[in-house]
């Protein structure tokens, strides 16, 4: 992302951006609730749910729909999946609005964004009627238009960031579709989580840039380098957490912590635990890996958690010592301690739903702090 000071071309851009940040956070947390309550396949078709724009209220409401051959109707779960889709769709509309506002003074900017949206929109009914190849072609064409525009445009008016965010959220919708149609394939589930957090990060960056409240520091370059390192480590840890959840490996060590099944280093199979692609057609709900493979995933998650904790604790300490950054340092440290406590509680308490959802929310909040500081910390004006 270019470092120039953005020129916001619409007085409501920052308001829409902050609304999108709040909604993105809600989508991430609610998505974790859907995944962790085993409701991810409760609507086997997409984007409808047993052919409905909403969801079946009773088990008998969709007995004649083809999707019942894939999975029986469970109304108490179906509403969760479909509400999540509705929230994600609302977020998509906000991001489209941001892209249109940011591109409005670029040559053919609005036309390019609208053409991309129309191409993706055409693909949805094609997919619903079973024309998957044609639907994919239209979606890819729409993504291509957005990426071409983003590469040509600078970011002085946030046009590049807004267009890239729209491209990301379209790909995120495709991942959501594949999550269902490929039966919770772990690489797709993890990608869907990372896509949501990437969207959240881009929106947070844009919202702060549009609000234009810089934090001027004499050693801004060094601080930003430390922040980028922290962001990279956090991203790796989040990816491992997503892989752990997608492979149902959260309780592979039983309720033991810091040991695992009573041992400091139990038998593991890292090779099988980190095979990313296992083909299509397998129902991955509940997981397909053996115990040693799941333990390998859990141990990798724990080891990386130790690395991320040590570095982010160091970063929080450094921030506390910088004049004017006390609140940010304390906030980062408090969130870090809470996240570790929630992770341990997940294991010791047997993965209670509310604790697991809060653990996902904690990761998003840590991400928010780091991205916010990256967006705001700048050198003194000359």
Give an overview in words:
With 382 residues, this protein is mainly alpha-helical. It folds into two domains: 1-213, no CATH class; 214-274 and 286-382, no CATH class. It has eleven helices and two strands. Strands 1-2 form a two-stranded parallel ribbon. Helix 2 runs antiparallel to helix 5, helix 3 runs antiparallel to helix 4 (132-152) and helix 5 (159-181) runs antiparallel to helix 6. The protein is globular.
Characteristic key phrases:
2 domains; two-stranded parallel sheet; 66% helix
Topology overview:
Elements: H1 13-36, H2 75-103, H3 109-128, H4 132-152, H5 159-181, H6 186-211, E1 215-216, H7 220-246, H8 270-273, H9 291-320, H10 326-348, H11 353-376, E2 377-378
Parallel strand pairs: 1-2
Helix pairs in contact: 1-2, 1-6, 1-11, 2-3, 2-5, 3-4, 4-5, 5-6, 6-7, 6-11, 7-9, 7-11, 9-10, 10-11
């Amino acid at each position: 992302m270019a470092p120039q000071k953005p020129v916001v071309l619409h007085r409501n851009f920052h308001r829409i951006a902050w609304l999108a940040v709040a909604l993105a956070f809600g989508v991430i947390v609610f998505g974790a609730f859907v995944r962790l309550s085993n409701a991810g396949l409760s609507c086997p078709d997409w984007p409808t749910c047993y052919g409905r724009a909403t969801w079946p209220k009773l088990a008998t409401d969709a007995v004649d729909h083809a999707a019942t051959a894939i999975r029986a109707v469970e109304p108490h779960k179906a509403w969760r999946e479909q509400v999540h889709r509705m929230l994600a769709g609302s977020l998509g509309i906000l991001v489209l609005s941001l892209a249109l506002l940011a591109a409005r003074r670029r040559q053919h900017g609005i036309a390019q964004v609208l053409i991309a949206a129309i191409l993706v929109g055409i693909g949805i009914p094609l997919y619903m009627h079973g024309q998957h190849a044609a639907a994919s072609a239209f979606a890819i064409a729409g993504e291509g238009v957005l990426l071409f525009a983003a590469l040509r445009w600078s970011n002085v008016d946030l046009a590049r960031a807004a267009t890239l965010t729209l491209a990301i959220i379209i790909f995120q919708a495709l991942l959501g579709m594949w999550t269902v149609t490929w039966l919770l394939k772990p690489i797709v589930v993890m990608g869907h989580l990372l896509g949501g957090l990437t969207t959240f990060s881009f929106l947070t960056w844009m919202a702060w840039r549009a609000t234009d409240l810089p934090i001027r520091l004499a050693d801004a370059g060094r601080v930003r380098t430390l922040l980028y390192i922290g962001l990279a480590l956090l991203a790796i840890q989040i990816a491992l957490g997503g892989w752990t959840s997608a492979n149902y490996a959260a309780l592979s060590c039983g309720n033991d912590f810091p040991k695992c099944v009573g041992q400091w280093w139990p038998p593991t199979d890292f090779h099988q635990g980190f095979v990313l692609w296992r083909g299509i057609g397998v129902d991955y709900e509940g997981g397909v890996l053996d115990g040693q493979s799941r333990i390998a995933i859990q141990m990798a998650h724990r080891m990386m958690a130790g690395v991320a904790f040590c570095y982010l604790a160091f970063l929080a300490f450094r921030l506390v010592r910088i004049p004017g950054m006390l609140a940010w340092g304390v906030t980062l440290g408090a969130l870090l301690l809470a996240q570790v406590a929630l992770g341990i509680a997940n294991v010791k308490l047997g993965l209670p739903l509310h604790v697991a959802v809060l653990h996902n929310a904690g990761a998003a909040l840590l991400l928010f702090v780091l991205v916010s500081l990256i967006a705001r910390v700048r050198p003194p004006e000359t």
